[in-house]
Design a protein that fits this description.
Number of helices: 4
Low-confidence stretches: none
Strand order of the largest sheet: 4-3-2-1-5
Largest sheet: 5 strands, antiparallel
Mean pLDDT: 77
Helix content: 40-55%
Order of helices and strands: HEEEEEHHH
Distance between the termini: 79 Å
Number of domains: 2
Length: 140
C-alpha cells in the first residue's frame, strides 16, 4: 500500500513531462514546416501569409504591402489553404448551401433622400424636427 502511494506521484510526473515533450516536438515540426506563401495564425489571433522565413524570425504579410516580423514561437498554427481562404475572405464552405433569400438580403439599400450633414445649422433643424415628432433633442 505504501509503495502505491510513493509510485503514483512519480508516475504522474513522468506522464506530465512526456506530454510536454510531445507538444514541444509538434511545435518544432510546425515551425520547421513554415514556408513562404503559407497561411498562419499567431498566438495573438492574427491571420497572415508567410513572406519569408529566417533563422529565428518570420516575415508575415498582414495586409497587401504590410509586413510584420514575428518570432517563430509566435506562430500558433499553419493553416490549410482552404481554411485560411475561408477565414480571410469570408467564403462559406463548399458543402454549405447558399439561399436565395440571403442573396436578396445582401443587396445594397438605396441611400436616404436627405444627405448627411454635420453643420450647426442642420443640427438645430434636426432638433426641431425631433421635438415635433415627439423624440428627444440631440445633446449640445
Amino acid at each position: 500500500m505504501n509503495l502505491i502511494i510513493l509510485l503514483l506521484p512519480i508516475l504522474a510526473i513522468v506522464l506530465m513531462f512526456r506530454s510536454q515533450k510531445k507538444r514541444q516536438q509538434q511545435m518544432q515540426q510546425m515551425q520547421t514546416a513554415l514556408e513562404p506563401g503559407a497561411g498562419v495564425r499567431t498566438i495573438g489571433g492574427l491571420y497572415a501569409r508567410v513572406k519569408a522565413v529566417n533563422e529565428e524570425t518570420v516575415e508575415l504579410e498582414i495586409a497587401p504591402g504590410v509586413v510584420g516580423y514575428f518570432t517563430k514561437s509566435a506562430i500558433a498554427a499553419v493553416m490549410d489553404p482552404a481554411d485560411y481562404d475561408a477565414i480571410i475572405n469570408g467564403r462559406p464552405a463548399e458543402d454549405e448551401p447558399v439561399d436565395a433569400a440571403d442573396a436578396v438580403d445582401a443587396e445594397i439599400e438605396p441611400a436616404a433622400a436627405e444627405p448627411l450633414s454635420f453643420t450647426k445649422d442642420d443640427a438645430a433643424k434636426g432638433d426641431a424636427k425631433a421635438e415635433a415628432e415627439g423624440g428627444a433633442p440631440a445633446s449640445k
